[in-house]
Design goal:
Length: about 120
Amino acid sequence: MATDAHSGSPGQSPDEPVHIESKSHLDEVVADHDVVLVDFFATWCGPCQMLEPVMEGLASETDAVVAKVDVDELQQLAGAYGVRGVPTLVLFADGEQVEQHTGVLPADRLRNMIEGYTE
């Protein structure tokens, strides 16, 4: 059974990445969860594909929600966050954007970044 942003109780993070369908969906996920790591990606992007298992691991191993935004499907949303290259990772804590990084980051750096806001 697949989990989505609507399953479980508010504040409880799903164990796999949530695929964002619209700006309002992203706003809802960010509002419902303390820490959200958003992966702006493209299916044709090699580094994005390398990051995929890392993002899945973070979703299951951390208290953060991992959300994925396909920049080709949601170009306006990507533009709203100033995404110029993929992958771009945006971290939200308590509903506010706190960090943004373009390019692949190692799993341990991402985990430390998340844990800095979940403790």
